[in-house]
């Protein structure tokens, strides 16, 4: 198979992971990344002399794909666990512990829910009705807000489920799909009349492993793409940056890619292509030869957000934070309702002991700003966004004085929205792509936003391409044998 050439469009973690599997499968691989840097939403840079992630900072350990990749790269011993995963929620004017036993905000323990005081007395009184209400009819997909609200009341949606999903998707619960945004709960809800019972079922079926829920790398998770790219190159592959693919067309049993500016286009032929870019550019590339997939991909919306990273002297905090951070529900943070605009705060130096050890005199904090539809919030300048984050920490944590250094990272159109009907949409995309030999798609737009899900999609795409190339080579060898006779 060494004569086969595959091109991976997109140098994010999904594209790089797919390229690595293809290269290790004996395929000559070229990765084309349009931006100057590989890694997509995984990026690390220094602030106040410390390497701190600008995008995702950890992987979920309950899924094996990302950890397996790190171990396959020979870096398993480098993995770092958080010092704490205890988090809070800003609700009804105070920071409160998340209730024990919740599954993505869906409660399974009513006593723990009451003890948390996250809900008002009226909101708390509404929740147990779920245990006696008749089954909520559910044919096709529905929104998170519709189903969870019908079972548990609106306060559970607004003050527990929404802030957790806001941290993952930066989305709106009125639009997000119950099936794809809360897949484990949605599946359990098909066999439980009560949603509380479904959450209890999910917790009962989950692993009893008491190990850490998250893991990262000592130099930041943003170092992972570079490690994967190095492995691709070591296996004989090529990784190019600043190489924007403008067109993809079927040609002579393979594919022709047009790269670069219209005034000086470059053409590259491949036996197979993996498209590992966001939905909009993927739709543009597929429009000519796979229009059905292109139409579906064009319908996937994206949310923008910004991460404001602040480095404070430890003395700026009247007392050091004990938890890893806190979430802010939209009903508390929406600027249109008088809120401050921050949706999540991570005390990075508390969450990651290796970061604190490198400079005990600094506390690094990351503040996330922006939800789907909040374009006006993100139209403010970097200075204004930093001021929003500083005001949030002053109001909630009593932080005094200015930060030592500030960094604002904007992720425009960074998070795909898994809105109602998303699973069916993805199935239609894959069905259309499956009709095209030597073509596969991968990335966050399909089956999950986290790094493990992206790596899983890369594995599926690479497997499809390797199987297709092997079947073609087998057919060619068979034809050659027939001619020789």
From TrEMBL:
<comment type="function">
    <text>Involved in coproporphyrin-dependent heme b biosynthesis. Catalyzes the oxidation of coproporphyrinogen III to coproporphyrin III.</text>
</comment>
<comment type="similarity">
    <text>Belongs to the protoporphyrinogen/coproporphyrinogen oxidase family. Coproporphyrinogen III oxidase subfamily.</text>
</comment>
<keyword id="KW-0285">Flavoprotein</keyword>
<dbReference type="GO" id="GO:0004729">
    <property type="term" value="F:oxygen-dependent protoporphyrinogen oxidase activity"/>
</dbReference>
<feature type="domain" description="Amine oxidase">
    <location>
        <begin position="13"/>
        <end position="466"/>
    </location>
</feature>
<dbReference type="GO" id="GO:0006783">
    <property type="term" value="P:heme biosynthetic process"/>
</dbReference>
<dbReference type="InterPro" id="IPR004572">
    <property type="entry name" value="Protoporphyrinogen_oxidase"/>
</dbReference>
<dbReference type="InterPro" id="IPR036188">
    <property type="entry name" value="FAD/NAD-bd_sf"/>
</dbReference>
<comment type="pathway">
    <text>Porphyrin-containing compound metabolism; protoheme biosynthesis.</text>
</comment>
<protein>
    <recommendedName>
        <fullName>Coproporphyrinogen III oxidase</fullName>
        <ecNumber>1.3.3.15</ecNumber>
    </recommendedName>
</protein>
<keyword id="KW-0274">FAD</keyword>
<keyword id="KW-0963">Cytoplasm</keyword>
<dbReference type="InterPro" id="IPR050464">
    <property type="entry name" value="Zeta_carotene_desat/Oxidored"/>
</dbReference>
<keyword id="KW-0560">Oxidoreductase</keyword>
<keyword id="KW-0350">Heme biosynthesis</keyword>
<dbReference type="GO" id="GO:0005737">
    <property type="term" value="C:cytoplasm"/>
</dbReference>
<dbReference type="Pfam" id="PF01593">
    <property type="entry name" value="Amino_oxidase"/>
</dbReference>
<dbReference type="InterPro" id="IPR002937">
    <property type="entry name" value="Amino_oxidase"/>
</dbReference>
């Amino acid at each position: 198979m060494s004569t086969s050439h595959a091109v991976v469009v997109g140098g994010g973690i999904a594209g790089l992971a797919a390229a690595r599997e293809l290269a290790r499968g004996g395929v000559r691989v070229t990765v084309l990344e349009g931006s100057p840097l590989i890694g997509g939403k995984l990026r690390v840079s220094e602030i106040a002399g410390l390497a701190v992630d600008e995008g995702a900072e950890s992987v979920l350990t309950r899924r094996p794909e990302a950890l397996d990749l790190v171990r396959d790269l020979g870096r398993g011993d480098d993995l770092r666990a958080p010092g704490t995963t205890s988090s809070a929620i800003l609700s009804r004017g105070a920071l409160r512990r998340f209730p024990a036993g919740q599954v993505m905000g869906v409660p399974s323990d009513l006593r723990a829910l009451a003890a948390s005081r996250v809900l008002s007395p009226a909101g708390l009184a509404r929740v147990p009705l779920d245990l006696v209400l008749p089954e909520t009819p559910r044919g096709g997909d529905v929104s998170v807000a519709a189903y969870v609200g019908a079972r548990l009341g609106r306060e559970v949606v607004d003050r527990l489920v929404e802030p957790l999903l806001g941290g993952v998707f930066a989305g709106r619960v009125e639009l997000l799909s119950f099936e794809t945004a809360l897949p484990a709960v949605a599946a359990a809800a098909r066999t439980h009349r009560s949603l509380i019972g479904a959450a209890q079922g999910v917790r009962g079926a989950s692993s009893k492993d008491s190990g850490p829920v998250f893991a990262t790398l000592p130099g930041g998770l943003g170092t992972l793409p570079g490690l994967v790219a190095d492995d691709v190159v070591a296996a004989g592959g090529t990784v190019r940056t600043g190489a924007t693919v403008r067109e993809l067309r079927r040609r002579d049993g393979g594919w022709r890619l047009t790269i670069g500016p219209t005034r000086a286009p470059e053409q590259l032929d491949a036996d197979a292509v993996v498209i590992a870019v966001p939905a909009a550019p993927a739709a543009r590339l597929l429009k000519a030869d796979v229009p059905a997939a292109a139409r579906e991909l064009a319908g996937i919306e994206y949310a923008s957000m910004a991460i404001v990273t602040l480095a404070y002297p430890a003395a700026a905090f009247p007392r050091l934070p004990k938890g890893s951070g806190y979430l802010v529900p939209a009903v508390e943070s929406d600027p249109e309702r008088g809120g401050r605009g921050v949706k999540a705060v991570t005390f990075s130096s508390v969450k990651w002991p290796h970061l604190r050890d490198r400079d005990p005199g600094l506390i690094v904090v990351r503040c996330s700003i922006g939800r789907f539809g909040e374009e006006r919030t993100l139209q403010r300048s970097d200075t204004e966004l930093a001021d929003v984050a500083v005001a949030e920490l002053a109001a909630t944590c009593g932080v005094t004085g200015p930060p030592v250094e500030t960094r604002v990272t904007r992720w425009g159109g960074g998070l795909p929205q898994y809105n109602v009907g998303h699973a069916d949409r993805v199935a239609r995309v894959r069905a259309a792509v499956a009709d095209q030999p030597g073509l596969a798609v991968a990335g966050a737009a399909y089956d999950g936003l986290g790094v493990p899900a992206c790596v899983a999609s890369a594995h599926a795409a690479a497997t499809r391409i390797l199987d297709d190339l092997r079947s073609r080579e087998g057919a060619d060898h068979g034809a050659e044998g027939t001619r020789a006779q």
